[in-house]
Amino acid sequence: MARISHWIDGKTWSGVTQRSGDVYDPATGAVTGQVDLAAQSEVDEAVAAAERAFPAWRDTSLAARSRVLFAFRELLNEHKDELAAIVTAEHGKVLDDAAGEVQRAIENVEFACGIPALLKGGFSENASTRVDVYSIRQPLGVVGVISPFNFPAMVPLWFVPNAIACGNTVVLKPSEKDPSAANFVAGLWARAGLPDGVLNVLHGDKVAVDGLLTHPTVRGISFVGSTPVARYVYETGTSHGKRVQALGGAKNHMVVLPDADLDLAADAAVSAGFGSAGERCMAVSVVVAVDPVGDELVDKVRARMGDLRVGDGRRPGCQMGPLVSAAHRDKVASYLDAGVRAGASLVVDGRGHEVDGDADGFWLGPTLFDRVEPGMSLYTDEIFGPVLSVVRAPSYDAAVELVNGNPYGNGTAIFTNDGGAARRFQHEVEVGMVGVNVPIPVPVGYYSFGGWKDSLFGDTHAYGPDGIHFYTRTKVVTGRWLDPSHGGVNLGFPRND
Ligand code: NAD
């Protein structure tokens, strides 16, 4: 049985842990490892290593820092298949999907490789007579990154490359459900030449999270997870004087207008609804069919679902893997009974879907409900599984009202051939990331990722320009080099003449 321990100060931690947790292969149901669950003393050790590494790392030249990033990018590229296999083994998503996750992670490393240009400040010559004003960006210090189970490689790498590139040192607390990817990535950073202590991986649960949120040395926290925990992390971290960005859960609506290409829309709904077994924060979980397309669209979605191959993500041809744990599978399955009881129409019942995998895996096939109403738990809750709900809307205005009335605001999409309608939608919709005929509009690495409303707490989005902003403090210098014209004592407020 593999022991999965912390990575502190450039090596695997060799201490004795008080608590540990089981790690599963969701496709077989077998326990494959034991992950250390940090106590406060282990949090302190990780933070102390990051604190020791900070002064030298912040003073490392931009050229040297970017060389480490380039080297890390090469190593990640070289080992992307191994990393994808690690993700599949503990998360369950199919290999191809895991490879896509790793590719999107690499995008963020490539963005951070441009750090010398990204950290440029401003300069105003002669802002006042013979006085220059310039701004510089400096790192925060030790920052914490706390990530969810559903993207064990990509989400940590939304944050870590930018944080490190800006000169910070990091304690990463990955999900305890699939912890191995973080250790593998930490090893690659070390091989890329990152000095010991600049990146530390601390495994654990609430104890580790609370330890980071309240630690006086930690200056900033980037969190991704469910909305209740995101809200808690934001409130606790900020009340302890930290800068916090906390990305939460989602209920993403895909609006289909009557003029849309319904085959394209049905392909998109199935792909975005059931990819990664619906365990994506950008998954489509609600299709809003604007009259009169409902019946035809539901038929087309149903027809595509029967062909989906569900099974062990390592087996060729499987398109959808298991859910992450037995408990999560059971919770998701409970929504099927609740939906039927509430009066929604169960079009496809995933419990009967054929599976190409071990009988003990955490399986649930793709499920489709039609005529879901806003008050039903199918609609109100983030289910985070392969359950797609269709809500019928009488008009475009009713569809937008529904999206805007939802407390979440992570992603949304509109399917239409009407450019004017799409333009109106992008203007009116209260959601942070919008797709036009694109069902999963995850921004590229040089934009930033983030939702609105209950999908994000804090002021800055993740990665891209917002990431650089989050991981730096600006300082403005007003300077004058003495020349013969200095004017002597003046107690008035400085004026710019
Ligand atoms: P989660 O909230 O259960 O866990 C996230 C992290 O918080 C983990 O590291 C976990 O150890 C820790 N944690 C869990 N409970 C805690 C508690 N009570 N106190 C302190 N820390 C705690 O989320 P998850 O189940 O791992 O991930 C799925 C959720 O993440 C979904 O809601 C999904 O929408 C969301 N998500 C959001 C985004 C986004 O960008 N908005 C991206 C990916 C996932």
The gist of it:
Helix content is 38%, strand content 23%.
How does the SSE layout of this entry go?
Layout: E1 2-4, E2 7-8, E3 11-12, E4 19-25, E5 30-37, H1 40-58, H2 62-78, H3 80-91, H4 95-112, H5 115-118, E6 123-128, E7 131-139, E8 142-146, H6 154-165, E9 169-173, H7 180-191, E10 199-201, H8 206-214, E11 218-224, H9 227-239, E12 243-247, E13 252-256, H10 262-274, E14 284-290, H11 294-305, E15 310-311, H12 326-342, E16 345-348, E17 355-356, E18 367-370, H13 377-380, E19 387-393, H14 396-405, E20 408-409, E21 411-415, H15 419-428, E22 433-436, E23 452-453, E24 456-457, H16 464-470, E25 472-479
Parallel strand pairs: 1-5, 8-9, 8-11, 9-10, 11-12, 13-14, 13-21, 14-19, 15-17, 18-19, 21-22
Antiparallel strand pairs: 2-3, 4-5, 6-7, 7-25, 12-24, 16-18, 20-23
Nicotinamide-adenine-dinucleotide binds next to α8 and α9.
Keywords: NAD, Oxidoreductase
EC number: 1.2.1.27
Domain Aldehyde dehydrogenase: 18-477
Q: Which structural traits does this protein have?
A:
single chain, 497 residues, alpha/beta, Aldehyde Dehydrogenase, Chain A, domain 1, Aldehyde Dehydrogenase, Chain A, domain 2, 2 domains, 6-stranded mixed beta sheet, 16 helices, 38% helix, 23% strand, binds nicotinamide-adenine-dinucleotide, oxidoreductase, MeMal-semiAld_DH
Care to describe what's here?
- Its EC number is 1.2.1.27.
- It is an enzyme of class 1 (oxidoreductase).
- With about 500 residues, this protein is of the alpha/beta class.
- The chain folds into 2 domains: about 1-250 and about 455-475, Aldehyde Dehydrogenase, Chain A, domain 1; about 250-435, Aldehyde Dehydrogenase, Chain A, domain 2 (3-Layer(aba) Sandwich), CATH 3.40.309.
- The chain is about 40% helix and about 25% strand.
- It is built from 16 helices and 25 strands.
- Helix 15 (about 420-430) links the parallel strand 21 and strand 22 (about 435).
- About 50% of the residues are buried.
- The model has no long low-confidence stretch (mean pLDDT about 95).
